[in-house]
Structures are given as C-alpha cells and as structure tokens.
C-alpha cells in the first residue's frame, strides 16, 4: 500500500507512527503568530497616526499595508501546512501526504515569500525616499534598491512556478534547494543594503550628535531583520545535509516570519513619536485646567489681581462701578494757552494718573496676562 509508505525509511530501532506522531506544530505556529500579532499592532498604530493625527498618507503606507496583508496570508498557509501534518519526522508521514503538502501549501508558501519580501522592502525604500528626498545620493540609492528588489523577488516568483511545473507531481522542494539558497543570499544583501541607506543619510544631516543617534536607533532596529535573514539562510543550508526536512524546517520558518515582520515594524516606527507627542499633549491638557479654560480664565485672574491691588491701595474699600468712578476723580485744572509743551505733557500725565485704574485694567494688565499665558501653553516646545 503506497499510502502507508513513509516518506523516508525510519532509523534503525524506530517504527513509523502515522497515527499520533510527535511534531513541532505548536513550536512553530505559536511564535510566528505572536510575531505577526505584534506587527499588526504596529501597522494599526501607524495607520491611525497617519490618518487621524498627521492626516497624510503616502505610497509607503499603502505598500506597508500590502506587506502586512501578505504576511498574514503567509502565516495562514504556514499554519495550514503544519495542521495537515508538516512538522513531524519525515518517517512519520506517508510519501503521498508529503507530496500533497509540498505541491499545494508548500508551493503557495514559496510563491508568497517573494511578494511579501518585496512589499516589505519597498515600504522601507519609499519611506527613505520621503524622508531623505533632498539628498540626491540617497535618492539614487533608493531607486537602485527598488530595482534590485523588483528583479530579485519577481524572478524568484516566476522561477518558483517554472521549476515546480517541471518536476514530478508538482513537488519542487528538493529541486529548488540551490535556487532558494541563492535567492536568500541575495535577500540578505538587500537587508544589509536597506540598513546602510538611512544610517549614511542621517550621518550627513546637520543636527546635534544626540539627535543623530536617536534617529539612527530607529533604523538600527533593522539589524534584527538582517540577523533573522542570516539565520534563516544558515538553517536553510542545514537542510541540505539532512533527509528529515519536515522536522528541521521549524527554525527556517520562524526566522523567515521574523525577518518579514521586523521589516514591517521598522517601517512603522518613525510614526511613533507623533503618536506619543499627541498622547502627551492630550494628557497634559486634561490635567491642566488652565489650558482648557483658555485665555478668558487668565483675563479673569488678571482682573482679580488688579482689583485686589487696587483695594489694598484704597485701604480695603471696594472700588466703585465703572459708571460711577468719575465722581471720585478731581477735575483737572485748565491749562493756559501759553503753557509750554513740557507743562502740557505733565498735565496729560496727571489726568491719566487720576483715571488710571479703569484704563490700565483693560489694556496693559490684560495684554501682559495674554503673553504669559501663551508662553505657558507653548512651554512644551522648549
């Protein structure tokens, strides 16, 4: 019976277990699902910030969405692959089932890897183009990176279908080993290239060293994507020296998913400061009643202070209403026609002093309060 024939002969002393074999399904699916979950949170925060706070969406945001959707679909087919029997020892799965898995879910995963990687790196490159567009060298580096990624992942996608069609029963896993290794090697070079571009561009910016380090730290998170790509390539080469591919493919898938989603997360990180600043501003406004009550409150505070000072000068007496204050003022002495300009200015100053409380209250003090309030509202800028 061919349906009960194991994919490879079991080692000596071990019998094939087709009923309930040990596997690595949970060891693979749970970390990958957690990584994709974190990525979805970052993408949601990015889109919320760009739509509701910054109110501007660019091509890098659209490609980031495409990459996120592709990553979720990749995870879905990976879970289906392991749910149908992948992840066990190869002598615990029948030859027929293994061929079926590799020809359907395995083929789909290989086809999805190229577009998912392309949209992830395209989102980063478009982000670099938007941030560092004035730098001509960086612009050309971005253009070259887009062309490089397009040729690499498009050729991988096309050759995946061509090589699969030329193999028996659609199984192309072993026949594509060399091609996959070469493609992943060029993929690691692309990761390193995308890490160098922003660091070199930030180094040429005219800003303090502390700010350069802070900006570079955001893109330095891409080193995790580079490391994941290198580890995925390493474990992929280890598959060449073993026949138990279904068991030893777990680290390859984990680091592949980590590489994809780390690139998406890094492309979302530059929007985080805008969200943090907006959240801090809202919290500060909710805790500071003066910022909510506005200038009217500061006007009333200034008037109260002016009235209290005026009461102290008047011996604690309550000032008369504005309509009755003219009865408290002494009539100014008439000025002779032949008085000098200096005497006229002195007389005008005396009249202003007598009428000072009402005039100074509505002009000088209120303007001073406004200036002080504006400086307080803008204090977070300093």
Per-chain topology:
Blueprint: H1 25-53, H2 59-83, H3 95-131, H4 136-165, H5 177-203, H6 209-220, H7 222-238, H8 245-248, H9 250-268, H10 272-287, H11 289-313, H12 341-354, H13 356-362, H14 364-377
Helix pairs in contact: 1-2, 1-9, 1-10, 2-3, 2-9, 3-4, 3-5, 3-9, 4-5, 5-6, 5-7, 7-9, 11-14, 13-14
Core attributes:
0% strand; 382 residues; single chain; mainly alpha
Rg measurement, Å? 36 Å
DSSP helical segment count: 14
**Average pLDDT level:** 74
* Oligomeric nature of the chains: single chain
Strand content: under 5%
What's the total count of β strands? 0
Specify the helix fraction band. Answer: over 70%
Intertermini distance = 79 Å
What coarse outline follows from CA principal-axis ratios?
elongated
Structural class: mainly alpha
| Biggest sheet character | none
Written as H for each helix and E for each strand, in order along the chain, the element string is HHHHHHHHHHHHHH
**Uncertain parts:** 166-171, 294-300, 325-329, 352-382
């Amino acid at each position: 019976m061919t349906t009960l024939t194991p994919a490879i002969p079991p080692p000596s002393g071990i019998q094939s277990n087709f009923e309930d074999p040990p596997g690595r399904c949970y060891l693979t699916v749970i970390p990958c699902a957690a990584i994709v979950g974190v990525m979805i949170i970052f993408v949601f925060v990015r889109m919320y910030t760009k739509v509701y706070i910054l109110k501007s969406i660019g091509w890098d945001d659209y490609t980031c969405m495409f990459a996120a959707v592709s990553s979720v679909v990749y995870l879905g087919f990976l879970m289906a692959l392991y749910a149908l029997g992948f992840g066990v020892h190869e002598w615990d799965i029948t030859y027929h089932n293994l061929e079926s898995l590799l020809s359907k879910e395995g083929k789909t995963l290989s086809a999805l890897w190229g577009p998912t990687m392309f949209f992830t790196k395209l989102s980063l490159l478009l982000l670099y183009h938007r941030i560092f567009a004035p730098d001509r060298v960086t612009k050309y580096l971005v253009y070259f990176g887009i062309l490089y990624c397009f040729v690499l992942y498009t050729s991988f996608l096309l050759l995946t279908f061509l090589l699969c069609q030329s193999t028996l029963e659609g199984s192309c896993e072993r026949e594509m080993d060399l091609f996959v290794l070469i493609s992943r090697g060029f993929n690691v070079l692309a990761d390193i290239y995308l890490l160098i571009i922003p660091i070199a561009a930030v180094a040429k910016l005219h800003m303090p060293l502390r700010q350069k380090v802070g900006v570079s730290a955001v893109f330095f998170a891409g080193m995790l994507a580079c490391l994941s790509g290198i580890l995925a390539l390493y474990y992929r080469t280890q598959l060449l020296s073993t026949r138990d591919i279904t068991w030893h493919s777990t680290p390859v898938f984990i680091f592949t998913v980590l590489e994809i989603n780390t690139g998406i997360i890094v492309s979302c990180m530059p929007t985080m400061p805008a969200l943090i600043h907006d959240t801090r501003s809202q919290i500060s406004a909710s805790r500071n009643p003066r910022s909510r009550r506005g200038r009217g409150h500061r006007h009333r505070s200034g008037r109260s202070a002016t009235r209290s000072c005026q009461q102290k000068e008047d011996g604690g007496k309550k000032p008369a209403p504005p309509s009755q204050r003219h009865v408290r003022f002494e009539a100014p002495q008439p000025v002779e026609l032949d008085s000098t300009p200096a005497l006229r200015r002195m007389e005008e100053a005396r009249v202003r002093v007598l009428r000072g409380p009402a005039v100074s209250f509505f002009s000088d003090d209120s303007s001073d309060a406004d200036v002080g309030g504006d400086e307080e509202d803008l204090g977070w800028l300093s």
